[in-house]
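User: Fold this; tokens only.

Assistant: Input:
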Amino acid sequence: MLWLPIAITAVIISSFIIAIGYMIGRGFHLPSLEAWAKVEVREVLISIIIIAGLAFGLTFINATVNQLGQGGMATLVMGEPDSPGPDATGVPDCTPGTGGINGMYGFAYCYLEGSTDYMIYIYGQLVAANRYVAKMTSFYFNVAIPLYLAVASVSKAPYAGLGVINSMIGLGMDALASASFIQVAQKMLLRFFENYSLSFFLPLGLILRTFSFSRKLGATLIAIAIGTYVVYPLSIVFAAGVYDQVDKHVEINLPHEPPDLHDTAICNPFIQNFMWLGSIFWWYIWFSGPCATATVGWWACMLANYPNAQLIYSAVNSVFLLAYVDVLWDYATADPSDIYNAIADPTNPNNALNAVSHNAMITAVLAVFSIILTVVTTRSLSIQLGGDTEFYGIYKLI
């Protein structure tokens, strides 16, 4: 117990201060100072009892902590995948390690880090789903079919009605980001409490209990040290047990994703420019030179060759259409119900948004539970030690 020498040193300092006050009172015949020193001796004895009780309590908890929490700290299955991808599987565990207080802290860290990593994994799944849905819902095509002097066109936006799923995915991503922030904040608090509760707050509280004007503050700091060092990590162990019971499996089986258009012939610059310039432009380019020497006159020659220009232009367009018809087919034949079922179908218990709600909501609730349990326990202990009964500001936050 690294904190014990610091606590004993604090008591020795307090005893030294009281002894100096008693000697001054005796030497200079100051009855009030002498009486104060006699009263404070009792408080030093109480401090020694507090230290002894805390040492015994921590030793007891150190020996029995593995039996505390839901089912003990045997194994917590986080469900984080071993490899990226929606089909990845894996069940890394949180185990108690060496047991005792250190094992409790290690288990709490594992839960906070593992749940954060898993939510980040789900976040990545939602990013992929959001990209897929955005690609499909923004897809629109207009195919012109040349019919010699006339043109027939077919226009379609087959997945425009699925745009609402992007909004749902966005809300899910926001919820996961907030839940991940909560877990990271809890980890930072846990690290702070582990490093400073017994090494700083407890000795400071013991010293402040020496003086009557700061006794209440000292008792409050002692209660805070015990509550934050013992109760807070233990509440996280309880929370980990609850979290382990939640169905967190994610299964986002998106349909086959068509290729990005910029990687296909559809977005080929030559094809784009050729079609954008149109048949009239190419009619002029192709026949303007040859018709310049025509005996029938340039304009008559151009009019005579316009059908030929249309025919050539239509033939080239047909070749282009054949070059990317397989891409259009990929987009046109995807089943919208498959997209919806993978992400938001309420009859599918493993859809992505269900997993988001299970992880984000339970994480927020368990974090509030840990804070409330710590504050309530610390307040009760503070009252027993003669400290403040209200932590102003904290209750408003809760």
